[in-house]
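User: Please fill in residues for this 89-position structure.
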């Protein structure tokens, strides 16, 4: 059995930065919906609080990135982070 590492940092109401051994991601929560943007996938979850019922849709990040694709992904990631901060502050 391997070791795991995970740490969450609350930035603002509804906005968290998650750090783990596999990378850094951000989670934005609004009501019963949450979107998580990570290094390997984007995950959107809608749930009914207290019932244990939820629906999750996972979208993997494309593999085989080009040099410009990595830069574009970084710019999009930072843009989403700034939009998330602006919405919740």
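Assistant: Residues filled in for all 89 positions:
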């Amino acid at each position: 059995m391997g070791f795991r590492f995970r740490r969450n940092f609350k930035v603002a109401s509804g906005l968290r930065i998650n750090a783990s051994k596999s990378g850094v991601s951000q989670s934005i929560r609004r009501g019963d919906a949450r979107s998580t943007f990570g290094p390997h996938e984007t995950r959107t979850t809608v749930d009914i609080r207290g019932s244990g019922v939820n629906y999750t849709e996972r979208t993997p990040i494309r593999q085989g990135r080009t040099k410009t694709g990595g830069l574009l992904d970084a710019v999009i990631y930072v843009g989403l982070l700034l939009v998330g901060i602006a919405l919740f502050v």
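For context: Residues 6-88 form one domain.
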